[in-house]
Amino acid sequence: MMMFRCFSKYWALALCLTAFVAGRAFAQDAKLREGDQIEIRIGGIPAAEITQINGSYTIDGEGYVNMPHIGRVRAAGCTQGQLQQAIQSGYRDQQIYTNPSITVLIPTTARFVNVEGSVRNSMRVTPGDQWASTNPASMASPHPRASTTRHGPR
């Protein structure tokens, strides 16, 4: 029995680590959308010009982000890596900078999840939202007979 408890603790730890790594991989592979807030950082350029570019940007309703010196760059539908390459190429192609290094970050609070269906109230929440994570009963079905069986929801 002791061996089973020890094994189950390691199994739980492995499962948590796997979920953490998978979540980080998903964030990097996630497609950007209109309205997303992103952070853009640049390197490989003169220090005096870094502050002009580093900062928070919002992807506009048409799916573009407006970058200093090169204008609008298509962001919606791109992954972080694709947007980084597009911005770097824009600065190189227009001969603004010869070797820029762009980093695009998606703050964890920038993504939303729509909660709908058999819930008390449909709402938009941010993953990790304090209210949603501390009030699991708030996501319970309003129907008094609704419950879950071993075969799934009734």
Topology, element by element:
Blueprint: H1 2-29, E1 37-43, H2 47-53, E2 55-58, E3 64-67, E4 71-74, H3 80-93, E5 101-105, E6 113-115, E7 123-125, H4 130-134, E8 148-149, E9 152-153
Antiparallel strand pairs: 1-2, 1-5, 3-4, 6-7, 8-9
Write a concise keyword list for the protein shown above.
154 residues; alpha+beta; wza like fold; 2 domains; three-stranded antiparallel sheet; two-stranded antiparallel sheet; elongated
SSE sequence, one letter per element: HEHEEEHEEEHEE
Largest sheet: 3 strands, antiparallel
CATH top level label of the largest domain: Alpha Beta
Quickly give the structural class: alpha+beta
> At CATH's second level, what is the architecture of the largest domain?
2-Layer Sandwich
- Chain-averaged pLDDT: 74
Categorize the overall geometry: elongated
CATH homology-level superfamily of the largest domain: wza like domain
Q: Work out the count of structural domains.
A: 2
Q: If you compute it from the alpha carbons, what radius of gyration comes out, rounded to the nearest whole angstrom? A: 22 Å
Strand content: 15-25%
User: How many distinct beta strands?
Assistant: 9
The largest beta-sheet arranges its strands as 2-1-5
How many helix segments? 4
The CATH topology annotation of the largest domain reads as wza like fold
Kindly summarize this structure in a few lines.
This protein has 154 residues and is an alpha+beta fold. Helices cover 35% and strands 22% of the residues.
Could you explain how this protein is built, in words?
- The chain has 154 residues and is of the alpha+beta class.
- The protein folds into 2 domains: 37-107, wza like fold; 112-153, no CATH class.
- The chain has 4 helices and 9 strands, in the order αβαβββαβββαββ.
- A 3-stranded antiparallel beta sheet has the order 2-1-5. It has a two-stranded antiparallel sheet with strand order 3-4. Strands 6-7 form a two-stranded antiparallel ribbon.
- Strand 6 and strand 7 form a beta hairpin.
- The chain is elongated and about 55 Å long.
- The protein starts with a helix and ends with a strand.
- The relative contact order is 0.12.
